[in-house]
Prior knowledge:
By secondary structure, the chain is of the alpha/beta class. It contains twelve helices and 23 strands.
Amino acid sequence: xxxxxxxxxxxxxxxxxxxxxxxxxxxxxxxxxxxxxxxxxxxxxxxxxxxxxxxxxxxxxxxxxxxxxxxxxxxxxxxxxxxxxxxxxxxxxxxxxxxxxxxxxxxxxxxxxxxxxxxxxxxxxxxxxxxxxxxxxxxxxxxxxxxxxxxxxxxxxxxxxxxxxxxxxxxxxxxxxxxxxxxxxxxxxxxxxxxxxxxxxxxxxxxxxxxxxxxxxxxxxxxxxxxxxxxxxxxxxxxxxxxxxxxxxxxxxxxxxxxxxxxxxxxxxxxxxxxxxxxxxxxxxxxxxxxxxxxxxxxxxxxxxxxxxxxxxxxxxxxxxxxxxxxxxxxxxxxxxxxxxxxxxxxxxxxxxxxxxxxxxxxxxxxxxxxxxxxxxxxxxxxxxxxxxxxxxxxxxxxxxxxxxxxxxxx
Length: 411
Ligand code: FEO
């Protein structure tokens, strides 16, 4: 195994950092955007990571959102990079490519390197960039930076766009992976994983990032992990979150991504519900309390009050999911509908599930939840419990039996 020498920040701004002998971090933190993709809350912000590789020639790896260009350009200048030769584009989503036209304008000699799909997307998103500057590389192709330094390109399609690729700097064992192995959370100057103060928060944010952004592409993540493993990278530089190192958290991050993308989960349950007047909430509490009494970790979520991203993160963390809703306008409550839709979009797999609900004159919600689980091919641990108005003592017993069945079926 190749050993990497890590460097602490010195004489550099908060988020500019030396990663290895020839690799530097030049990304930016975002503490102001309230919703990532205009959908997902960012309670701890998010980082848009970019890097510099200095050989005889110099390469930038990815950029930043358009609105962060000035800060990003200042980071480049701070490293004394006056005329980069290449911009490597691992991922074209605008949180990483938005500043590309301005970077291209500032460094007119710089070539822009991607694969054929990348080039097509650059022409579509940024037609102001002269197409003669675009260089299309193939899977496995190398780019020589001089001094014996090469970058090798490895396509990892659908992680999480079709053009996505990883770039390997073999001389120092550094792999740039795009969104793969990324996480929410700004870095606040702690670029290396060895500097993380609250590891639990980082891994919780990784569940949330994966479940919200990447989960639909689980098979692609598995293919990418398998394809990149032989490179034996010692340092992994993603587009979001800390730089992972072999002496830091890289082994745990690889394991968590492997578990999430192969649908493995810990023993535990999510009980997610919505309730208009408290009866469905009471049923949910009955289920959660019974499961807890069986020794099962339980996350009880009122979908009208808990952000969907938090609920999804817990569903990707735990192996059991129980959903309840009253019938509302001949369907489920809208927050329950949003959850079921999110699960269908991501084609949830590998979970034990159960459904419950109530109604006053027309029973729809419980069946709708159960039908969603059947369509997804999930393992129903027992028959749904459907209640007319308030649950009777016998129906409360049925809810407890549902909880017991779920607890006993969990690993
Ligand atoms: Fe952070 Fe898929 O872009």
